[in-house]
């Protein structure tokens, strides 16, 4: 129900029309403890005020006791209908003293569990109810004005206490949500890291397998020795791909109780092996490695260079098989490292189209960005496709 019309409803209806999603949640043991405490507190306040009824007519005392007992019993409804309970007790407080305990509990509950607009809603009839009560039963020491002032101060203290409790709970909930979001973001980043590693490793292995299988498919005149060599390369590549897959699955199954079972990461020293594997698969690779102080290349930098070259060779095998590929790595500490993979964009003749996910370059751009570098790729006016990355190398 829209809140703009709730202000026009009678108090009895507001309690039944309060917004609450679905069925009310079951009380937890903590809820039961709090509710019992509130009920006992309301009963104790009622018993304390019972002595102030001395001197009043017997009929008034009996009516007060009945209203006080019913009001204390109604405290059990405060969790489900706090606004309705507070508004229902407001007119009773105009002439009854023993509803004061349950009334204070209801006001405090609204301040804790409802926004400020509901506090304003319940306080208007409560403050109005103070006027007839203060006129009928003024305190002998404070008089009419003092009775009203003390009651207002009690209300303000309760509301401030309730709003402070509500704010503290909201802060706790917000911090918990932020912690959950941070944990979820950490899990997402970890999944993305594993996905990048899986793509970088498996895509390279599988494109090599596809290249060997394509050679067997189109070379009908291949000798038995060539067929055996290609089959051996396929078997070896499949074994390596399965081993890489086991290592990635091991990372996914890691329970974080010990050190991460990270597979050995490649470095600059493994770059020549990568180029040699591509040559064995039939690619024409033209290396141009001019790195000053290669043995001193940091492990993280070398791993990124390896992944850039690996992705460039993989894309060349997918989209331009049979053409020469130039791999140039140049740089030194200070100026940084430049990695360039260049190949003709178009390839003549018939070849097997190797499907791709389209995420390799996206992941590579993320990897180089995390390393503080930049990545460029595209077809040049001379018809060559170029993948170029620059990576910082502190001196």
Automatic annotation (TrEMBL):
The cross-references to Pfam families, in alphabetical order and at most eight, read: DUF7134 (PF23539), HisKA_3 (PF07730)
Q: What chemistry does it catalyse, as a reaction equation? A: ATP + protein L-histidine = ADP + protein N-phospho-L-histidine
Which parts of the sequence belong to the Signal transduction histidine kinase subgroup 3 dimerisation and phosphoacceptor domain?
A: 190-253
Q: Which InterPro entries match?
A: DUF7134, HATPase_C_sf, Sensor_HK_TwoCompSys, Sig_transdc_His_kin_sub3_dim/P
Indicate the transmembrane segments per the record.
32-53, 89-111, 118-136, 142-164
Q: Which domain of life is it from?
A: Bacteria
Question: Which terms are listed as keywords in the entry?
Answer: ATP-binding, Kinase, Membrane, Nucleotide-binding, Phosphoprotein, Transferase, Transmembrane, Transmembrane helix, Two-component regulatory system
DUF7134 domain sequence ranges: 30-169
Q: Does the keyword Transmembrane helix apply?
A: yes
UniProt xrefs under CDD domains:
HATPase_UhpB-NarQ-NarX-like
Signal peptide residues on this chain, from the entry's feature table: none
What name has this protein been given in UniProt?
A: histidine kinase
């Amino acid at each position: 129900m829209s809140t703009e019309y709730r202000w026009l409803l009678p108090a009895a209806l507001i309690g039944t029309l309060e917004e609450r999603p679905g069925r009310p949640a079951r009380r937890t043991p903590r809820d039961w403890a709090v509710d019992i405490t509130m009920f006992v507190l309301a009963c104790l306040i009622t018993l304390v005020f019972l002595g102030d009824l001395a001197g009043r007519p017997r009929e008034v005392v009996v009516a007060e006791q009945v209203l006080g007992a019913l009001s204390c019993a109604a405290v059990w409804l405060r969790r489900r209908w706090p606004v309705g309970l507070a508004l229902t007790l407001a007119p009773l407080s105009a002439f009854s003293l023993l509803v004061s305990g349950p009334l204070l509990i209801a006001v405090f509950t609204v301040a804790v569990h409802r926004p400020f607009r509901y506090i304003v809603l319940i306080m208007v009839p409560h403050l109005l109810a103070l006027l007839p009560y203060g006129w009928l039963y003024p305190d002998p020491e404070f008089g009419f004005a003092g009775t009203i002032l003390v009651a207002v101060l009690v209300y303000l203290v309760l509301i401030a206490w309730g709003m402070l409790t509500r704010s503290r709970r909201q802060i706790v909930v917000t911090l918990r949500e932020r912690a959950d979001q941070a944990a979820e973001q950490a899990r997402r980043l970890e999944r993305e890291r594993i996905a990048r590693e899986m793509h970088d490793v498996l895509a390279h292995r599988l494109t090599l397998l596809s290249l060997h299988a394509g050679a067997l498919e189109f070379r009908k005149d291949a000798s038995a020795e060539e067929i055996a060599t290609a089959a051996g390369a396929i078997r070896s590549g499949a074994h390596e791909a399965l081993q890489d897959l086991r290592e990635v699955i091991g990372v996914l199954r890691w329970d974080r109780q010990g050190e991460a079972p990270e597979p050995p990461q490649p470095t600059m020293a493994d770059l020549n092996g990568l180029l040699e594997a591509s040559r064995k698969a039939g690619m024409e690779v033209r290396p141009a490695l001019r790195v000053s102080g290669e043995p001193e290349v940091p492990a993280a930098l070398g791993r990124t260079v390896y992944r850039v070259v690996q992705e460039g060779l993989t894309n060349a095998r997918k989209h331009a098989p049979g053409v020469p590929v130039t791999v140039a790595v140049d740089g030194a500490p200070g100026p940084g490292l430049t990695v360039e993979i260049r190949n003709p964009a178009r390839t003549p003749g018939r070849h097997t189209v190797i499907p791709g996910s389209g995420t390799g370059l996206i992941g590579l751009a993320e990897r180089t960005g995390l390393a503080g570098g930049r990545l460029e790729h595209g077809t040049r006016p001379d018809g060559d496709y170029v993948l170029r990355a620059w990576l910082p190398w502190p001196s």
